[in-house]
Amino acid sequence: xxxxxxxxxxxxxxxxxxxxxxxxxxxxSKKKRRKFLVPAEQIYKYKTGGSILSMNLILQTLAExxxxxxxxxLPVIMISYDRLRFTEIMTxxxxxxxxxxxxxxxxxxxSHSFSNIMLQGAVIEIKGTIIDIPLxxxxxxxxxxxxxxxxxxxxxxxxxxxxxxxxGHTWPSGRTESQ
Length: 179
Hints:
Blueprint: E1 2-4, E2 14-25, E3 28-39, H1 40-46, H2 55-64, E4 77-87, E5 94-105, E6 117-118, E7 122-127, H3 152-161
Antiparallel strand pairs: 1-2, 2-3, 4-5, 5-6, 5-7
């Protein structure tokens, strides 16, 4: 379950906010999404313990998605990042480049980092209707990128759970090669 918005608006704006329910089965993933318009002040209040969407609205929307949580749900982590978006014009494949991936838990994980963490490196997401990278994007293979499935959410959670000073504490999963 994710609540998402784009950019940081000025305090007097009305902001589109999306409630999303993501699920994965093997390589296939599904996302259900509903848009809400909220005053920007709700986003800023959230950072100090307020709420962006009411719990009743969240639960009602999840029920409309045919999802019924077994217990209480609560925010776990707040993640932000910078993003550039591109579209490959021949196939319509979408590509995004995410960096400065920052996170802070929204509650204290006992004996783990509660401070802001920034993951090292960057994430390239490629989304399209085919599993192969389009021909025009094939040169990306020469960039020595370790291609894998990566979840910013899981990576950030793992970074907060890792002991400070651990190898990989703030690095996305993948290979490290000596030069």
